[in-house]
Amino acid sequence: MSYHIVVCAGIVPDPLQSLEPVMGPNGPGLKNEMMLPAVLDPWAGHALFEAAHLAAGHAGSRVWLASLAPKAKLQQVMMTVAQKVPFELVAIDGPASGFTDAAAAAAALADAIAAIPGLDRSKLLLFGGWESASRAAGATLQMIGERLAITDQFQGVDSLTIRPDGTFEILERIEGGRHQVSTCAGAPAVLGWATGHLHEPANNPQLGMTNMRTLMPSLQKARPAAVPMGGTFSAAAVPSQRRETRVVKDLSPDAIAEEIVEWIRQ
Predict the structure, then answer these.
(1) Whole-model pTM over 0.70
(2) pLDDT at residue 130, rounded to an integer
(3) Which end of the chain is more exposed for a tag (fewer CB within 10 A), N or C?
(4) What 3-state DSSP class applies to 199?
(5) Are strands 124-129 and 4-8 parallel, antiparallel or unpaired?
(6) How far is residue 197 from each of residues 46, 50, 81, 158, 194, measured CA to CA in Å?
(7) Residue 259 near residue 100 (C-beta atoms within 8 A)
(8) Which residues contact 27 (CB under 8 A, 6 or more apart)?
(9) Which segment, 55-64, 70-79, 126-135, 199-208, is predicted with the most confidence on average?
(10) pLDDT tens for each residue of 11-45
């Protein structure tokens, strides 16, 4: 059994940076957004690692990474991601902001995926993040699946097991901190990954050089996508710091705990 796995992965600003929303000429965005260092969306990263692990265990499988992002920023991120796992890039030149319209982003990604040369829909597994550091809640991934006529969709996936008969056993997160086990007859299917169970692969410069041979041509051929911005906001501010210190001696641990609880309630 072999699979054609397409991972939908966006890029997001490094979470260690201070993000300040601003209203620009084209709608809402982030202050100095193009200057902020970017990383691969963490949830999409889990999906990519799971895809590469699955493909490595099934001869003949292929992995594509489809990303809608500014071409220059995407190239910077790919310099690092390319050293992690083998994949082929499907690049779309467009905004990666969290303010982009999810439906329009899904349409652009679905069209790009449908146009992948040699893609076998009967073997297609569409991977992505269950949530996102920019677009949130897996809404984009679900709409891509619908546009590609894939009705078997699973969200909050932590584990995927391929049975000998080709069916899938999928471990999904549900409410109340519990999991449910689902069974799928096989591809095509959409899987929105939570954290999975794999660690992040170590950097492999030799693998990075191999990937870059196909990544750079893909970036050069990236088609522009006119994805509109959606929503607005009235104001945004950094949370104010609050510090109230009081030095007290000979106070029991229970009394300290009661004071802390009372302070939180207030």
Answers:
(1) yes
(2) 85
(3) C
(4) coil
(5) parallel
(6) 9, 8, 19, 7, 9
(7) no
(8) 99, 228, 229, 230, 232
(9) 55-64
(10) 888 777 777 777 767 667 677 777 778 888 888 88
Which run of H or E residues covers position 113? Answer: helix 102-114
116, amino acid identity: I
Domain 4-224, CATH 3.10.450.50 — does that match?
no
Give phi and psi for 131, each to the nearest 5. Answer: -125, -175
Q: Does residue 266 or residue 231 have the better pLDDT?
A: 266
**Given this model, what pLDDT does residue 103 score?**
85
The enclosing H or E element of 180 equals strand 178-184
CB atoms within 10 A of CB 224: 10
- Cis peptide upstream of residue 188 (ω within 30 degrees of 0): yes
**Backbone phi and psi for residue 30, each to the nearest 5 degrees, phi listed first:** -110, 145
Q: How many other C-beta atoms lie within 10 A of the C-beta of residue 209?
A: 11
* Cα–Cα distance, 44 to 232 (Å, whole number): 26
- Residue 186 φ/ψ region, left for φ over 0, alpha for ψ in the -120 to 50 degree band, beta for the rest: left
Question: What are the phi and psi torsion angles at 179 (to 5°)?
Answer: -125, 155
DSSP state of 8: E
pLDDT band at 51 (very low <50, low <70, confident <90, very high): very high
Domain spans in the chain, listed from the N-terminal domain onward: 4-224
Give residues with Cβ within 8 angstroms of 266, minimum separation 6.
none
CA distance 173 to 150: 21
